[in-house]
Amino acid sequence: MAVAFSLWETRSGNIVSAHETEAAALAAVRETIRVHGRTAVASLVLARETTRSTRIIAAGDALADRTLMTEQDTTDRSAAST
Fold first, then answer.
1. How much is the pLDDT for 72?
2. How many domains is the chain built from?
């Protein structure tokens, strides 16, 4: 079963991007936050999509929090391994 992690813009209802992994989708959100600030992702939704269903993972502020928390976890793991 194919799985995609998609970013949707809620105001327009358009798909912004689709990724093979959640980590790749969060990296795209992280870059958007870095370049445009946290408010740039306020109307985004991250969804896990299969041929059978779509499940919302996070949206808006929760998506920004998840993205930044994931970045911190990765940074913490990298520092611990050195």
1. 63
2. 1
Q: How many CB atoms lie within 10 A of CB 81?
A: 6
Query: Per-residue b/e over 51-79, b at no fewer than 16 CB within 10 Å?
Result: eeeeeebbbeeebbebbeebbeeeeeeee
Six-digit token string for 17: 């991007």
Residue 18 structural domain = 3-81
Q: Which of 33-37, 42-46, 69-73, 77-81 has the weakest average pLDDT?
A: 77-81
Query: pTM here?
Result: 0.82
Q: What are the C-alpha distances in Å from 40 to residues 23, 24, 28, 37, 49?
A: 19, 18, 12, 6, 23
